[in-house]
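Quiz preparation item.
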């Protein structure tokens, strides 16, 4: 993640012990990095290139965000390291309009109005326009198989 994002990743620890998965509480289980701006667009494009700019309709959430995963990090152009092996990676994009801070600030907190929220349709349209992407609905997915 450090090679990809160009910044130091944050470590995530397990909250609870799950014996079936051999995961103990406070064991380091994942890393993540928050990336914004031009670097984020570049990373997103590299990730979407692996997916061939095709996303399923269910990749888009009700709040207008979207995410997808890739199975092998080497598809992004990173070099294979025998000590770490091959690992998968998730991309999650949070869409916001200017003014969303009012719901998170400390003083004078307010709700985001219905007309100001981002719908899944708007996000899908942005994805199609920005990356010439294809959104596959459930019906199209069944036809492909």
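Solution:
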């Amino acid at each position: 993640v450090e090679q990809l994002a160009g910044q130091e990743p944050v470590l995530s620890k397990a909250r609870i012990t799950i014996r079936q998965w051999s995961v103990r509480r406070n064991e380091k289980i994942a890393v993540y990095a928050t990336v914004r701006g031009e670097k984020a667009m570049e990373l997103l494009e590299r990730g979407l290139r692996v997916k061939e700019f095709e996303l399923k309709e269910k990749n888009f959430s009700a709040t207008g965000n979207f995410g997808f995963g890739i199975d092998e990090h080497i598809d992004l152009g990173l070099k294979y390291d025998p000590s770490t092996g091959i690992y998968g990676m998730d991309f999650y994009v949070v869409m916001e309009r200017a003014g969303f801070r009012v719901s998170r600030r400390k003083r004078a907190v307010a709700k985001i109005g219905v007309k100001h929220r981002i719908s899944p349709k708007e996000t899908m349209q942005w994805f199609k326009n920005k990356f010439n992407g294809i959104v596959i609905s459930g019906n199209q997915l069944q036809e492909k198989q």
